Amino acid sequence: MLKGVTSLAGRNLRLLTTQGQVLVHHQHRAKASAAEPAELLDQETDLSKRAKFGHTGKQLQQKICKEKKLRAPPLLNLVFANRKLSFYDTSSTPKTKEDNAKLSQRRHYSMRPHREQEQRNAEDVLFDMFASEETGLISMGKFLAGLKTTGIRRNDPRVRELMDNLKKVHKLNNYETGSSAETQHLNRETFKAVVAPNIVLIAKAFRQQFVIPDFTSFVKDIEDIYNRCKTNTLGKLADYIPQLSRYNPDSWGLSICTIDGQRFSIGDVEVPFTLQSCSKPLTYAIALEKLGPKVVHSYVGQEPSGRNFNELVLDQNKKPHNPMINAGAILTCSLMNALVKPDMTSAEIFDYTMSWFKRLSGGEYIGFNNAVFLSEREAADRNYALGFYMRENKCFPKRTNLKEVMDFYFQCCSMETNCEAMSVIAASLANGGICPTTEEKVFRPEVIRDVLSIMHSCGTYDYSGQFAFKVGLPAKSGVSGGMMLVIPNVMGIFAWSPPLDHLGNTVRGLQFCEELVSMFNFHRYDNLKHLSNKKDPRKHRYETKGLSIVNLLFSAASGDVTALRRHRLSGMDITLADYDGRTALHLAASEGHLECVKFLLEQCHVPHNPKDRWGNLPVDEAENFGHSHVVEFLRSWAEKVDQPNEECQPEAVTTKTQADEEICSTSDLETSPATSPIPTPAESGSRAGSGRSSPVPSDAGSTASAGSASSIDDKTKPGL
Ligand code: GLU
Question: Is the CB of 310 inside a 6 Å radius of any atom of ligand 1?
């Protein structure tokens, strides 16, 4: 056991010491080429451990060292191959003892904090990535295009200094002919000076450290959904005021802003429209921020009304049901007038409210449509009725001037905006009240939590229950065709298309939301941990896979059959290998865990003879570490499998769920290979991992039925 632990720490699971990230391991490996002393020491200890256990001869050690040197790619190549960026300036690696001494002296006396040093490197690596080998200059056009693929736009306030610097340099260069400030070519030093003020954000972008690391792929999927919704021509324009009925029914815009300020927009995203009911969560947020939930909810409830959005009805406490329906929103407006800013004139309250909306939108377009305001006021019999009804029932705070309150409500509905600005507002809600593009804290997180809770249950008129069920995200729609969708801690989305369904929700916007959550695991109750058929754009592709491998290998190395069984039942590919080509079977064998070895071969049907990067088979591992009982078992297994005429054990990976197991146990499936959940030989081959020397049986029928039979056997074994 002790021996297992030692070797585990030293060799088998070095992956774990790097926080379980295979990519980190890759970088670690790449850095080995720089031959840092500590690193070499590590390698030596590592190798001496191997030698101590009789595992490798001197020759093999040399081979490994040589191979490591040969195979460790220059860092930037690795970066490109994996689309993952690392910021180590290999060119500044000390080559001689003198260099080393200089470097350590510099380190010692440098007043620069470590972070700054790192950033300096980042600037160099960025330059190297984009610079032309021929001219030695960087094309800023290419660089900014690269930045855009990460979701950062040129007009992002967080890269303002970069853009200003570019203009200054362009001017200093006497407006270099043939290029603009944004397409000019710069040398290394100038580039570094230009990007320095915004390097933290830029480095984060290129390191793929934003909430949506692979923004380009995500955007492609979004475009597909957008285009599918575009062909949907159902729905009718709102016509209770002429301004709404004049919209173009083909208008369709969609904007996204993540909590890291990654932006994407498609379609009619700059066409202005009025906020209408999308203003309701925002005025509610201001009231909560200023008065707190106790005061606010002593006037307005939190329950879905189950009735029409403008119905003349109060809850059993004689309060409007919630702040998302008209009665509740009028009440919120009265709180603003009478409690939040009782000393302000109507004009001042309008400005005050608009300034909140503007801050939430990071300074993007928030205007006012006077024609809509006047029309709203003209066609407001029902809203006035609600106001009088509430006044009769003493719903308003004292000192409420109903006429002013009603005007203020119509003004909020008539504020004008576009998809771009609204996506930033939605992102500020997703980001706990901090605007992602300006990084200004507009609301407290508790306020946002309350706002999102009410949006979740009451945001889409009489569809709210179904929306919460199907989409599972907070949203607010409005009669002008807007749909504000918030994915908490991830992003805000705004969809705008004027045709509405019979409940008042934008048809295309609704379709978009529903398709979004069927493609991505954004539904509040989607499981994020286990395998599912939905995409998770939040995780790095490699990270997800890397973590699964680490978990699997750790279970095998520590002899945990129960954990292995869980991996298998969750549908995981048990043949997965780490960077060194080491599989669960290698680890179980080298640690002498016979039970695990048996489980992997007999029940998971993994190949018995995968080779790691040094050419070692699991049986070699068992032998090298002196686990004779495992060696014996593996040898006899190999003999059995390699006998061509004997009944074959399928050497395929079964990625079955528990449900599959149950289906498999029904008698009609036992004899029916056609409907068996066991993979066909073709599937088995591909799942068994590329390049593995897996002896897949040639007879398709027998493979399937043998697989079924064996899985039924499995069920009879205790503990499965
Ligand atoms: N101005 C509209 C009203 O109060 C807003 C309706 C809405 O968007 O739901 O009737």
Answer: yes
- pLDDT by residue (tens digit) across 157-185? 999 999 999 999 998 887 766 789 999 99
Tokens 């946002």 belong to residue: 448
Do 202 and 57 fall within a single domain? Answer: no
Give the number of the atom of ligand 1 that is nearest the alpha carbon of residue 310: 10
**Whether the Cβ atoms of residue 150 and residue 206 lie closer than 8 Å to each other:** yes
Whether the CB of 330 sits within 6 Å of ligand 1? no
Residue 33 has pLDDT above 80, yes or no: no
The Å distance, Cα 376 to ligand 1 centre, comes to 8
pLDDT: which is higher, 121 or 380 = 380
As a whole number of angstroms, the distance between CA 314 and CA 294 comes to 19
Q: Does residue 202 form part of some domain? A: yes
Structural contact between residues 226 and 515, judged by C-beta atoms closer than 8 angstroms: no
What total of structural domains would you count in the chain? 4
513 and 399 in one domain? yes
| Number of residues that this document lists for the chain | 720
pLDDT tens string 141-161: 999 999 999 999 999 999 999
Q: Which of 373, 374, 403 is nearest to 388 (CA)?
A: 403
Residues in CB range of 634: below 8 A, 6 or more apart: 589, 597, 608, 618, 619, 622
Average pLDDT over residues 58-63: 54
For 261, the domain range is 234-519
Whether residue 538 lies inside any domain: the answer is no
How high is the mean pLDDT of the chain?
79
What's the pLDDT tens digit per position in 343-356?
999 999 999 999 99
| Minimum-distance ligand 1 atom for the alpha carbon of 277 | 8
- Supply the pTM of this predicted model: 0.67
- Ordered alpha helix ranges (H), 628-699: 628-642, 658-664, 667-670, 681-687
Is there a domain that residue 463 lies in?
yes
In angstroms and rounded to an integer, the radius of gyration of the C-alpha atoms of the chain is: 32
Question: What is the CA(500)–ligand 1 centre distance, in A?
Answer: 13
**How confident is the model at residue 540, as a pLDDT?**
66
First and final C-alpha spacing in the chain: 26
Residue 309 Cβ inside 6 Å of ligand 1? The answer reads yes
What's residue 121's pLDDT? Answer: 81
421 within some domain: yes
Verify that 339 and 239 share a domain, yes or no: yes
Ligand 1 centre distance from Cα of residue 442 (Å): 25
Nearest to 271 by CA among 250, 302, 292: 250
Same-domain check for residues 249 and 290: yes
Confidence of residue 213 (pLDDT cuts 50, 70, 90): very high
* pLDDT value, residue 265: 98
Ligand 1 centroid, distance to 478 Cα (angstroms): 7
Q: Determine if ligand 1 sits within 6 Å of the CB of residue 372.
A: no
Residue 156 token pair: 């992002």
Q: What is the pLDDT of residue 491?
A: 98
Q: Which of 237, 275, 277 to mutate to test the pocket of ligand 1 (most atoms within 8 A of CB)?
A: 277
pLDDT digits (tens, 9 = 90+) for 239-284: 999 999 999 999 999 999 999 999 999 999 999 999 999 999 999 9
369 lines ligand 1 (CB under 6 A): no
Q: Which helix (H) or strand (E) covers residue 464, if one does?
A: helix 464-470
**Ligand 1 pocket, 276 CB below 6 A?**
yes
Q: Which of 479, 496, 500 to mutate to test the pocket of ligand 1 (most atoms within 8 A of CB)?
A: 479
Count of helix runs (H) and strand runs (E) in the chain:
34, 10
Pocket perturbation via mutation, ligand 1, pick of 310, 463, 501, 502 by most ligand atoms within 8 A of CB? 310
Atom of ligand 1 nearest to the CA of 504: 9
**Does ligand 1 have an atom closer than 6 angstroms to the CB of 273?**
no
**What does the alpha-carbon distance between residue 421 and residue 307 come to, in Å, rounded to a whole number?**
31
The mean pLDDT of 294-299, rounded to a whole number, is 98
